[in-house]
Amino acid sequence: MFIIKYRKFFIALSIAFVVLSFTALAVFGLPLGIDFKGGTSIELAYTTPRPEVSVIKNALTAAGYEDVVIQPTGAQNIILKSSEVTDQAHLAIVSAVKTTGDVEQVGFTAIGPSVGKELKNKAILAIIMVLIAIILFIAYAFRKVSQPVSSWKFGLAAIIALAHDVAIPLGAFAIISHYTGAELDTLFIVAILTTLALSVADTIVVFDRVREHLGNNKKQSFPELVGDSLRETFARSINTSAVVLVMVISLAVFGPESTQLFATVLAIGLFFGTYSSIFLASPILVFMEQAQSKKK
Question: Which pLDDT score is estimated for 280?
C-alpha cells in the first residue's frame, strides 16, 4: 500500500507536527486552570444584555483586578477566574462587574493550591498509567508473535503513535489558549484520554490483522504484509473515525460554550489519532523490522 511505500514521508510529517507542537508549547506555554493550580471561579448571569468582554475587563481593571480571566459561557453568563481571593475581594469583583449591567451570582468555586497540585499529579499519573496498561496489553495480546518482530515492538510502535497523539493536541491548545485566554482544565485531560482510547483501538485493529497474516504464513515480505493489513482495515478505520469526528465537530460548532473548547481539543486529537493509527504506527513497525533485519 502507498502508506508503506512512502512510510519515510509519513514518519517525517509526523515528526514535523510534533516539533511544531513542542515549539508552540515553548513559545506560548500551557496555562493551567484553577483545577490544577488552585484559585477561584465566579459565575455571573446577566439579566440585561451581556456587554462585550472588553467592557467587563475595563471595569475590573479600574477596580484593581486586571488579572481576572473572563470567560463567556452560554448566552448571558460569564465565568471569572482568578487566584484565591478574600471574601472582601470577592464582593469587590462582583460589584465591579455590576457596573456593566444587572448581574447575579449563580456559582462560586474555590480550589486550594494543595488540591490543585494533587489534581495535576493525578492527571499526569492517569495518563502514564493508561500508556503502561496499553503497552502491557499489546505485549500480552501479541505474545505469540516473535518473527519478524518481537511482540513488545508492537507495543512500542503503538506508544510512539500515542505520544504523537498527546503532543499535537497540547501544542494546538497552547496556540488556542494564547489567542483566547483558555486554561487547561480537567475536561482537557478527559479529551486526551478519550483520544488515546480511540486511537489505540484503531491501531490494534491494524496490528491484529498483521498478526493474522503472520499466522497464515503468507509468502510475503513484511512491508507487503503490513500494507495488505492496512488496505483491509483502511476503510473501516476512516469510516468509524469520520462518524465520530462529525459528531464532535458539530458539538464544537453548535454545542454550548462550556463544552466547545473540550470538543475542539477532542476533534483535533481524534483527527491526528486516526492519522497516527494508519500513517504512523504501521510504518514505524516496518521501520523496526527492517532495523532488526539489518542487525542479523
Answer: 92
